[in-house]
Fold each of these.
Amino acid sequence: MKEVTVGIDIGGTNTKMGLVDRDGSVLLQGNIKTTAFSEFRDFFDGMASTLRGLLKDLPADHQLMGIGVGAANGNYYTGNIEHATNLRWKGILPLAKMFREEFHVPCILTNDANAAAVGEMVYGNAKTMKNFVVITLGTGLGSGFVCGGVLLNGHHGIAGEVGHTSVNPTGRYCNCGKRGCLETYVSATGIKRTVYKLLADHLEPSELRGISFDNLNTKMITEAAHRGDIVAKEAFEYTGRILGMKLAETVVHTDPEAIFLFGGLSLAGDLIFKPTIRHMEANLMPLFRGKIKILSSALQNQAAPILGASSLVWDYFEKQKMEIA
Amino acid sequence: MKEVTVGIDIGGTNTKMGLVDRDGSVLLQGNIKTTAFSEFRDFFDGMASTLRGLLKDLPADHQLMGIGVGAANGNYYTGNIEHATNLRWKGILPLAKMFREEFHVPCILTNDANAAAVGEMVYGNAKTMKNFVVITLGTGLGSGFVCGGVLLNGHHGIAGEVGHTSVNPTGRYCNCGKRGCLETYVSATGIKRTVYKLLADHLEPSELRGISFDNLNTKMITEAAHRGDIVAKEAFEYTGRILGMKLAETVVHTDPEAIFLFGGLSLAGDLIFKPTIRHMEANLMPLFRGKIKILSSALQNQAAPILGASSLVWDYFEKQKMEIA
C-alpha cells in the first residue's frame, strides 16, 4: 500500500484540504468556505464530506495514515481549537477528537505557523536542520520553533507567539487586546498600516495615494516599490528594520541555525530580506553575528499550508518510531 | 560503589568545586582564585590539583562518574570556553578535553545559567517540570531554557542569552558591545546603576547617598528598601518593571510552566517578585495571562553553582540511557 496523509488548513475565510504522499506531492485537493457555516458542527460535517469525496477518488492501493490540521489557536496537546479570534465559533472546539471518531485514524492539530515549521522540516529547506524558526507573514505574524529536531510546543501547547512581542507599548492596536505587537507592524496588514502612516506623515507623491486601505495589498506595495515609489520602498525599509530588530531578540533565546520567512510579504525578496538582515545583524549580540541565516521557505506556493498540515502526521509517526526504538 | 560527580563553577574571581552525590549533597568542597593565574594551563593545573586533593579524602567505595563545569561562554557542544569576556584568557579554551585527558571520565561544560537550569531539574523545584526557564541574577543576567525536558542548547551551543535582548537601543553601555541590554538594568550591577540614576535624577534624601558605587551592593539596597528608603524601593520597582516587561516576551517564545529567579537580586523576595509579576502580567499576550508561575529557585545557597554544574553529569547519563533504550 502507498501511504497518504490528509493536510487541512483552516483559515478565517477558506478551508483547504489535500491528500499528500510521502514526497510532498498533493494528489487531490478540495476546499470549503469557513465562513459559510454558522454552527461548528455543520462546518465539521462540511469538511468531513469534502474529505470523503476526495478519498473516493483515491486509488484503492493507497492507505490513509492520518489527518493533520493547521489552524490559528490550534493546541497540539489537547487537539482543540481554543478561543480563536479569527473564527466565528467561540470557546473550545474539540476538532482532533471529532476527526478521529469520524475517520478512525490519528488526527494531529497545531497552529498554522507550527504546521509550517514541521512542513519545512519534512518537505522543505530545513530537512537537514535541527534548530530553526519559521516566521509566517500573512494577515498576522506567526512563528514556529524547532529545537533539537523537535517542534517546540511549550507547557500549555501555545509556544511561538512571537507576533505578540512588543515593538512599542503605546503603539498600534492589536487584535490580541494589547498595543504595539510585532504583527501590527510586520505582516500583510502591518505593512499596509505603515504605508498609510507614511502617506499621512510625508508629502512625497506616491501611486499608493490613489488606493483605499481596504483595496491595498502587499502585491501592490511590492510592485510600486519595484517601480521606484518612495513611499512603498520606505514601507519595506521600515518593516524590515522592525523585523530585524525583533529577530535579534528571538535569536538570543533559541540560537537557531536559520530563520525562514514564509508568506506574501516574504515574496518581495530583497525588498524585505535586505533591511531585515541588516537590522538583525546590527542589533545582534556580537557573539551571534554572521552566524544566523535568513532564508526563504521552500514551500512558497498555494499548497504550502496543506503540506505543512499533512507533515504533522509523518512527524507523529517518526516520534512513535523513536519512542518504540 | 556510591556514585559521585564533580561540580565546578568557574567565576571571574573565584572558582569553586565540590564532590556531589546523587541526592545533591555536597560531600567535599574546595576553591581557588581564578584571577591568580596568568596562563590558562596553570589555572587548569590548579583546578586539577585541588580536585585530586578532594578525591584523596573521598572514601574508597565512592566512584567518580564525571565532571560538570559551569562557566560564562561555556559551549556544551564543543566543550570549549569561547571568547569569555569575564576571564583573562582569550580565545578558545578546550577545557572539557583537558579534564577528560587528566581524569578519564566524561566532562560536560555549559554556561553557568544552563548549569543552573539543569540543577533545578535534577535537584531543585523543577523536578516534575518539562518546560521552564531559569534566570540567574548575578553580575550579569543569565538564562537557561528547558523545553520538553531537554536543555535548549541551540545550533551553535549558545542559546539562552536573554540578558542581551534590548530594553533601549540607546540605553546603558553593555560589556557585550551593545547598548541597552536587559542585563544592564536587571542584575546586581544593573540595580546599582539604577540607584545611581535615581540619585542623580531626584532630590529625595536616601541613605544610599553616602555609599560609593564600588561599595554599593544588592544586600545594602535590599536592606535600605526594607527600612523604607524611597530611592531603594523605587530601584526595585524600576528593576521589576523592566524584568516583567521582558519576561512577557520570553514567555511567548517558549511557553514555560514557570520561570525561576536565582541569585542575589532574587533574595530580595517581594521587593523584586511583586513588580516583576505585575508587569509581566500587564505586558503578556492575554492568551498567556495567569498561566505562568514566577518562582524562587530551590538552590539559593552558596553551593548552588556547584550543584548545577555537577547535575550536568547526571543529565548526561540520563540522556545516554534514553539513547540506548
Note: Residues 89 and 207 of chain B are 39 Å apart (CA to CA).
Amino acid sequence: MKIEIVKNILEANDQVALLNRETFNNLNVFTVNVMASPGAGKTSLILEAIPRLNSSVAVIEGDVASSIDSEKVARFNIPVVQINTGGNCHLDASMIREAIKKLSLEGIRYLFIENIGNLICPASFDLGEHIRIVISSVPEGDDKPYKYPGLFSTVDAVILNKIDLLPYVDFNIEYFKNGITAINKKAKIFPVSCKTDEGIDSWVEWLKGENRYK
Amino acid sequence: MKIEIVKNILEANDQVALLNRETFNNLNVFTVNVMASPGAGKTSLILEAIPRLNSSVAVIEGDVASSIDSEKVARFNIPVVQINTGGNCHLDASMIREAIKKLSLEGIRYLFIENIGNLICPASFDLGEHIRIVISSVPEGDDKPYKYPGLFSTVDAVILNKIDLLPYVDFNIEYFKNGITAINKKAKIFPVSCKTDEGIDSWVEWLKGENRYK
C-alpha cells in the first residue's frame, strides 16, 4: 500500500518532468540538476561557472528555508528564483514548473537547478533536467558513493570539491573513484576546489561540451 | 489531503516512540538520537564517546545502504544493530522498535542511535530517545542553523566537529552560534575535533550529566 502511493507520486512527477523538459527543449535552455549534501559547495560551484560560460545563465535555488544562496546568486545580476520547500527534503517537477513561470527563460542558455542539500530523496525525482551532477566534498569522506549508491548511480558527473583540504583529512581518492565506477561507468569525475579554482575550468569545459543548444 | 496523510504518519510514529521510551525507561537505558549531514562525523563522535563513558554502550546504526559504520562500531565489541532503510531518508520509531528486539539492552546504560545523514526529515520523527544532538562540521559552513532551523530548533546540543579545519576554511563561529541561539535557547554548543580529540571530554562529561540512569 505504501509502495503503491510512492509509485503514484513518482509517476505523476515524471509526467510534469516531461513537460518541463519540453519547455527547456523548445527554448534551447540546457538544464543542470545540481545535487549534494548540505555545505558541499553547490552554490559556490554555480557561482564559479557563471562567469566562465560566456552565456546567459539563470538559476533556481532550492532550500528548506532562508534565501542566503539566492542572494549570493542575485549579485551576478542574473535571473534567479528561490524555492523554499518548508519541510520537503527534495525538489520535484511541479515546483520547477511553478518556478519557471517566474523566470524569463527567453535567450537563456544554461539553467542551474540547485537541489535541496540531501543525498537521498533528490535522486528519485526527475525535474526535467538534461544532466544531473552530484558534488561530493573531501571533508565528507571517501565512502559517500558506497553509502549513497541511489544518487551516485544516476548522475552524469561527480564533482569532488574542496580538494584544497586533501592535506588535512584522511581521504583515499582511488577508493572514492572505485566506488563510483562500480555503480556508474559513464559518470565523469572532476576534482576541483572552489576556493583555489583548481579544476574548475575542466568541468566548465565539459559542461559546455554537453550543452546541445550552445 | 497530503497534509492529512503526513499528520497521520507522524501521529502513528509518536505512538510507537512512546512505547520505545517506556522500554528504555524500564531498562534504565539512556538513549541519544545523533543527527547530522552525511560525513559530519556521527560515527566518529560515537566512537570517541564509547571508551570515555566507562559504561555499557550499544549502538543502532542507520544508513540508506552499506554496513561500513556498523563494522567500525563492532570493533569495540559492543552490541550494534544496522538498519538499512533502502530509499528512506530518516529513521522512524518502528524501525527502532524492530532493532531493539535484536539488541540485548539488559545492563546497557547508553544507547546511541545514529540517524540517516540528512538535516531535514529526521527532525520530525521522535524515536523515543531521551536527548537529541546534531553534529555540524566546520567545512559545511557557518550558515547551517539558518538553513535547517527545523532540526537545529529541536536539539539538546549542537556538536561543532572538525574544528581542526578552522584555519583552512571561512567559518565565523559567532555567526554560527547566533544562528542557534536565535531559534534554540536551551541547546548547548560543543566545538570539538574527533581528529585531535579537542573538546571531546567536555561533551562526554555533559552527556554523563544528562544521563538520569547512571
Note: The mean pLDDT of chain B is 95.
